[in-house]
Amino acid sequence: MFLRRIFAFSLLTASTAAMADAVDVNLRDNSAQLQYIASMGRDTLGKADMHAGIVYVDKNNLLGDLGITVRDEVGRNAPGLSVGVGIKGLTAKAKSNHASALALGGMVRYSPLPDRRFGIIAQLYYSPNIVTFGDADRYTETGARLEYEIIPQAAVYLGYRRINFGFESISDVILEEGAHLGVRIMF
After folding, report:
1. How would you label 123-146 residue by residue, b for 16+ Cβ within 10 Å and e otherwise?
2. pTM for the full model?
3. Per-residue CA distances from 53 to 14, 68, 99, 159 (Å)
4. 160: Cβ–Cβ under 8 A, 6 or more apart, which residues?
5. Mind listing the pLDDT tens digit for each residue in 162-182?
6. How far is residue 100 from each of residues 4, 67, 103, 113, measured CA to CA in Å?
7. pLDDT of res. 45
8. CB atoms < 10 A from the CB of 41, how many?
9. HSE on the CB side for 25, CA within 13 Å?
10. Which SS3 state, helix, strand or coil, does residue 35 take?
11. Alpha-carbon distance 46 to 68, whole Å?
12. Looking at residue 18, what DSSP letter applies?
């Protein structure tokens, strides 16, 4: 059942690739993440992006997510600093346990002046028991990365991510944790 959901999610993600503004891939020895990011435009709230992605660790540890993030620069008083808030729905299989969640989160990006090509990014997503379903009772994702824009359409980064599920029946399960190397290509 779970593999059918992942397959359907993959088809949905692949079908939106033609409309995507960016592809983000990061790898480590025992996991891979693939994301498609589509710009939803700019309004008074900032720049909005929709993303769809999958994290593959092994056949017993998979996560698919779909979300929206709104972000913008803080202003003149804090040059190079931008923040964003977002929401994402996710479904996962963690050590033979199934979970889904609606997570709220945010990110902070700082680019030292005058070179905006280099950035330091941190993010956090959290889902408490009330909006976490299946076998899990909470979800937490944290991450940080150092990013460098090689050309306007491509950036490379070195990051660290930790994805954790809390379960009532067993101890917490860390779906994925560790450093990764990534590339984001914009088109």
Report:
1. bebbbeeeebebbbbbbbbbbbbe
2. 0.84
3. 10, 12, 16, 17
4. 143, 144, 145, 178, 179, 180
5. 999 998 777 888 999 999 999
6. 15, 13, 10, 40
7. 63
8. 7
9. 3
10. strand
11. 12
12. G
